[in-house]
């Protein structure tokens, strides 16, 4: 599943799933562009780990929900590489709150990152990819976005990820046959957010997995690698669920 020398831009890649994906792609020979909203030790550390082990990586700072930031990032990518082979829209936030406590600002904050950012980056990437005759756009969805996996107290996030799934399948139709568009839907994952779960929540998530464990960032990274490689060339408009069977329980 080679991605050697492919130019890959991964949003929200300073930690968690994004960082694991960046490291795996770099290990497989890709030229990885790390992204974070602002310069941070975490983002620098991801780049450092990759380059110290012989990989190719650089950091491009910018907020994917701000059009001018997106224009700047993709302008720099095109100027430097003259192409973009893979975009992975991974940046996202989750702000659980009960329905009656929600305000418009909660919707604005979540949708700007989880949905508008996906749109802005996909549009900018597509312009480059269409010029070059090929490309892949991959989105991080969630099992919460599946029709039967919503969770109470998590309405805005669930709606945003449902929208990402609809965005993925519809955009695949519009950009075919030049660009493949797919999504990966993780289940409850062993990332930073899991560290603040109550013992009850963590136990519930593990028990409802058929594999009796949380989804690891490496599981998601491997799914992205498959879809980005030539092995995934025949796949578009699909949502690959990687949750250890959580959505079946």
TrEMBL record:
Spans through the membrane: none
Family: Belongs to the short-chain dehydrogenases/reductases (SDR) family.
Record protein name field: Short-chain dehydrogenase
Organism from which the protein derives: Candidatus Woesebacteria bacterium RIFOXYB1_FULL_38_16
CDD domains per the UniProt record, alphabetical: SDR_c
PANTHER family, per the entry: SHORT-CHAIN DEHYDROGENASES/REDUCTASES FAMILY MEMBER
UniProt GO molecular function: oxidoreductase activity, acting on the CH-OH group of donors, NAD or NADP as acceptor
Top-level division of the source organism's lineage: Bacteria
């Amino acid at each position: 599943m080679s991605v050697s020398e492919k130019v890959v831009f991964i949003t929200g890649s300073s930690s968690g799933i994004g960082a694991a994906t960046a490291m795996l792609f770099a290990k497989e020979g890709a030229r990885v562009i790390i992204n974070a909203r602002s310069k941070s030790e975490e983002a620098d550390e991801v780049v450092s780990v990759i380059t110290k082990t012989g990989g190719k990586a650089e950091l491009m700072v910018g907020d994917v929900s701000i059009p001018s930031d997106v224009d700047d990032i993709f302008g720099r990518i095109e100027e430097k590489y003259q192409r973009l082979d893979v975009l992975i829209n991974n940046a996202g936030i989750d702000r659980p709150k009960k329905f009656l406590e929600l305000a418009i600002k909660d919707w604005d904050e979540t949708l700007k990152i989880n949905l508008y950012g996906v749109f802005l980056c996909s549009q900018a990437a597509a312009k480059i990819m269409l010029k070059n005759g090929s490309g892949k756009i991959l989105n991080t969805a969630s099992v919460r976005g599946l029709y039967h996996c919503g969770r109470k107290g998590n309405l805005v996030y669930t709606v945003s990820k449902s929208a990402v799934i609809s965005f993925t399948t519809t955009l695949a139709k519009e950009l075919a046959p030049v660009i493949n568009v797919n999504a990966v839907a993780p289940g409850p994952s062993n990332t930073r957010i899991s560290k603040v779960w109550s013992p009850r929540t963590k136990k519930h998530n593990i028990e409802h997995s058929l594999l009796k464990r949380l989804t690891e960032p490496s599981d998601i990274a491997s799914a992205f690698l498959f879809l980005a490689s030539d092995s995934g060339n025949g796949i578009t408009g699909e949502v690959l669920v990687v949750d250890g069977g959580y959505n079946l329980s």
